Every structure is written in structure tokens, then in C-alpha cells.
Protein: Flagellar transcriptional regulator FlhD
Amino acid sequence: SNMLLCQFRFNDTMLVDLLSSHGRERGAAHLHAAILAAGRPVESLA
Structure:
């Protein structure tokens, strides 16, 4: 079947806080969160 399974990898409180920050440095917080998330290993579905 044509099904796409997605899972958010934001189990870490710090990543969620960085992505949801509404301060004036919002762009920097999002960039920092993206860098941290990219360094995490990808989980496999098996």
C-alpha cells in the first residue's frame, strides 16, 4: 500500500522549547534546534 509513516523526533524537552520559542531570537533558536536534531541517529522501523 502507499502509506507514509511519520514520527516526530522531538522527545527532548530542549528541542521542543527551542522550536516553540517566541522570543526575538526565534530564527537562531530554530537553527539551533535543527542542528541538534540532525545530530541524532535515525531510528529504523523493523
